[in-house]
Write a structure and sequence with these properties.
Radius of gyration of chain A: 22 Å
Helix content of chain A: 25-40%
Shape of chain B: globular
Number of strands of chain A: 15
Number of helices of chain B: 5
Strand order of the largest sheet of chain A: 2-8-7-6-5-3-4
CATH topology of chain B: Sufe protein. Chain: A
CATH topology of the largest domain in chain A: Aspartate Aminotransferase, domain 2
Order of helices and strands of chain B: HEEEHHHH
Strand order of the largest sheet of chain B: 1-2-3
Structural class of chain A: alpha/beta
Number of domains of chain B: 1
CATH class of chain B: Alpha Beta
CATH class of the largest domain in chain A: Alpha Beta
Number of helices of chain A: 14
Largest sheet of chain A: 7 strands, mixed
Bound molecules: pyridoxal-5'-phosphate
Oligomer: heterodimer
CATH architecture of chain B: Alpha-Beta Complex
Number of strands of chain B: 3
Chain lengths: ~425, ~130
């Protein structure tokens, strides 16, 4: 099953690089899908920038500025290699996934989407892969169409096919749902979209941190992800695009660095990627992201996936033992990294609050996916997510904490039914 | 001190004034965009005095307990007096320190009350922001 050089994770050694886990008992951090912890080598790389070669990039004609520029561009190469982009130039640094998607919506979208065109999304999109398209549709008169999910929480592929037609100009889809954990059949989605001449934007915020994503094999047109969910710092994200598309697209933000020449009334623009990186970028953060790429590739993406699958499977099994629990999404092997659930009669905020008292950090809320909450007919869910530093013991503590929450909250029968499980439609 | 102590849990489990009024003089409902919790408050008002109050909706311990405490607090008081209730008054009623997310849970009932009774749409404590 595994590739020849597969090496399982040495979780104990990995945890040594995360000072946040040094307490006793250690923090059971089960919210990496929101933002992962940052390992010491990444912090050290950013410190080295600040301590030894802090300067702006591109323009300085002195040694440390050249060093900063080289490190910034080195990070771009590392990211390109991670997702197998043909050229480093196809990597545009942004603040995060959200900004990367907005860049496409404003720049490519405004130039290529018009009245009567259709944009196909799924009901499981994060707001960051939904709202920019709503705004584009409102500007242009295009229509949004939504692919539904099956009862198991998988993308309804037959429905997706039905929605595709010659008016479909764009398909914007998440690779992995941040609520259900569902891994979507991206290759088939892209092939079917291309067959009707549509472009495809992939929200890879939850996939790139967890397994190997190959943009050439997928043949996606755009792909976006965030550094902070893959052991990198906040403030840095990535947009990958096919080169001809990026070259044709008008700039997004105007300003310094993105120009070639500027006259009073007109400017000419720099080449890709500088055209899309107006102003001083997040230099330390880009460098940090490069080291985060090193960190997760040294651990091994395949090993990370195997490890988080094991945790996910174990969590499914343990949590199913809890009375009144509902697990959302498909079976563990069809998921990556996240497990959403509700415990009958306990609001997800209360679940998260009580777990916090026991040193377990999970998320409770709508996870920026309100249309999906509505579809699931819930107000909110609790969500545990797993990454390379998590252990079976973390899952045990989650299980124990949920039992404690039930002891505390379900002591007597309530006069008013709690309702996290009861949505608007019921 | 933890946020799951007896007094709050009592309010949560057996809230005061839970329900709706058949012909409320004022009825308003809002949700907390952070979590989708939803609270409705119905008031029966005579001569500027809150004669009847009911709340309904769904939420976590904090938002439901805060609604229960708030309705106890305002029953029988004048609208003018109730208008003075502030963010700090609510946090004092709750009586335990809350993080910023849970503060919103605690303030949702007061926000609903103020929007319904006085048309004040800001979050309590952020009126001037
Ligand atoms: C699937 C998905 N898309 C997009 C985002 C947005 O990422 P960011 O907030 O870094 O822009 C997230 C993060 O919450 C996510 O899980």
């Amino acid at each position: 099953m595994h590739t020849a050089n597969f090496r399982p994770l040495d979780v104990a050694a990995i945890r040594q690089d995360f000072p946040i886990f040094a307490t006793e008992p250690p923090l059971a951090f089960l919210d990496s899908a929101a933002s992962a912890q940052t390992p010491q080598p990444v912090v050290a790389a950013m410190d080295a920038y600040y301590d030894t070669y802090r300067s702006n990039i591109h323009r300085g004609i002195y040694r440390i500025s050249e060093e900063a520029t080289a490190q910034y561009e080195r990070a771009r190469e590392k990211v390109a290699k991670l997702i197998n982009a043909p050229r480093a130039r196809q990597i545009v640094f942004t603040r995060n996934t959200t900004e990367a998607i907005n860049l496409v919506a404003y720049s490519w979208g405004s130039a290529n989407i018009g009245e009567g065109d259709e944009i196909v999304l799924t009901v499981m999109e994060h707001h960051s892969n939904l709202v920019p398209w709503q705004m584009l549709a409102q500007r242009t008169g295009a229509t949004l169409r939504f692919v539904e999910i099956t009862d198991e929480g998988l993308l309804n592929f037959a429905h997706f096919r039905e929605l595709l037609n010659e008016k479909t100009k764009l398909v914007a889809v998440t690779h992995v749902s941040n609520v259900l954990g569902t891994v979507n059949p991206l290759q088939s989605i892209i092939d079917a979209a291309h067959a009707v001449g549509a472009k495809v934007v992939v929200d890879a915020a939850q996939s790139v941190p967890h397994f190997r994503v190959d943009v050439q094999q997928l043949d996606c047109d755009f792909l976006a992800f965030s550094g902070h969910k893959m052991c990198g710092p906040t403030g840095i994200g990535v947009l990958y695009g096919k080169l001809p598309l990026l070259e044709e697209m008008p700039p997004f933000l105007g300003g310094g660095s993105m120009i070639r020449t500027v006259e009073r009334d007109v400017s000419t623009y720099a080449d890709v990627p500088a055209k899309f990186e107006a102003g001083t970028p997040s230099i330390a953060e880009a460098i940090g992201l490069g080291y985060a790429v090193d960190f997760i590739t040294q651990a091994g993406l395949e090993a990370i996936h195997v490890h988080t699958q094991e945790l996910l499977k174990y969590a499914h099994q343990r949590l199913q033992e809890i009375d009144g629990i509902v697990l959302y999404g498909p079976e563990p092997h069809q998921k990556a990294g996240v497990l959403s659930f509700n415990v009958e009669d306990i609001h997800p905020h209360d679940i998260a609050g009580i777990l916090d008292m026991h040193g377990v950090a999970i998320r409770g809320g709508h996870h920026c996916a309100q249309p999906l909450m509505k579809k699931l007919d819930v107000i909110a869910t609790a969500r545990a997510s797993f990454y390379l530093y998590n252990t079976l013991e973390d899952v045990e503590r989650l299980h124990k904490g949920l039992r404690k929450a039930q002891e505390l909250m379900l002591r007597r029968s309530r006069t008013v039914a709690s309702t996290a499980l009861r949505g608007e439609n019921r | 001190m933890n946020i799951y102590q007896e007094e709050l849990l009592d309010h949560y489990e057996n809230p005061s004034n839970y329900g709706t009024l058949p012909n409320p003089d004022i009825s308003h409902e809002e949700d907390n965009p952070l979590c989708g919790d939803r609270i409705r408050i119905d008031l029966g008002v005579e001569d500027g005095i809150i004669k009847k109050v009911r709340f309904s909706g769904h939420g976590c311990t904090i938002s439901l307990a805060a609604a229960s405490m708030l309705t106890e607090e305002i029953a029988g008081k004048s609208l003018a007096e109730v208008k003075q209730l502030s963010r700090d008054d609510i946090l004092e009623m709750i009586g335990i320190p809350l993080g910023p997310v849970r503060v919103k849970c605690a303030l949702l009932p007061l926000k609903v009350l103020k929007a319904g009774a006085y048309g004040i749409t800001a979050w309590p404590g952020e009126e001037d922001a």
